[in-house]
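Appendix B. Worked example

We walk through a single record from start to finish. Start with the input: the chain for DUF4198 domain-containing protein, Pelagibacterium flavum, length 345.
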Amino acid sequence: MKRPQLVPATRLAVIAVLGVGPALAQDQILEGSFALPNVQPAVSGEMVVSETGPLSRHIELSYSDIHTGERVTQYEVELTQELHLLATDAGLSHLVHEHVKAAGDDGRFTTELHFPEPGRYHIYTDAAPSGLGQQVLRFELQVGENGNLDTQADTLLGSPPVDVKDGPIVSSDQGYRVTLSAPDLEAGKEGMITLAVEKDGQPASDLEPYLGVAAHAVFVRAQDLAYVHAHAMTDGPNGNGHHAETVEYHEHAHSHHPASNEPVEHEMPSGAEEANVEGDEAGMGAEGTMDHDEHAMHGAAEAVGSVSSTMAIHVTPPAAGAYALWVEFVGGGDVITVPFALEIP
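Next comes the structure step. The output line below is what the pipeline stores for this chain.
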């Protein structure tokens, strides 16, 4: 039985037709700050936000080339989408993800976002303007009256971060239990995180590729909101022996609330090998959007069980500190998001 979600009937809906929107309240115009650690910015960004409900906002986003001042109108397709959005609250307690498949002819993206509760939100917009590489901006948005921008490292995802050297660490979502081990992970160096996914006490046998890869891992550092996204590798039939990029880049429509996050005293299964996630994936075709299940399954022609229950993630944490981590994969036809609160030395 699936655990109730914070926003049971709420899913991020995308409005793909530019210039058409709901009756809007007074607009807010937000300027983005560059959010990729150790990367030189090539764009600036502006987000126009209009209230459409107590917890919903209509958003228009545009990027501009900082060297020419011209609006960006062409984007590369990354894992089937041109824009990926991540929204998380000040305490890094909730995660909301969405995609916009394509920008309009004038380079603007439009979307309707729904938030799980009032508060201050960090909204990351992740795209690859043609010729400029991966670019991620962060926008700060107040939703409702409550909340502030203070992020407390001792309350990530509702629990204290666990030092990765004290693992393995276990967390769960929707009946799936994930064991994480990363005893050698440290800031500034590429390291490996290994994962084992279980369902009903057994290795999960109903996993499928999610947007063409085995799993995704989204990291947000509490101290400075640095943001890293990496892709999992697997030793199952879908494992192709290729390297997983450490890129700041996101996908899926999902709202998530905290779950368990505790160290355990057993070893991880071995045998994780690499699966290819480098470069662009196949595009989506005409403008528009897909619903949550279509997002999950697009590009996943392999049968149920084609992804192994043991995975590995190569990642380089930009700095030591407390991180919220969300591991995303497809299990039983649904996108599963398993949260961890980690301390990385």
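Two observations about the output. Residues 5 and 256 are 7 Å apart (CA to CA). Residues 153-344 form one domain.
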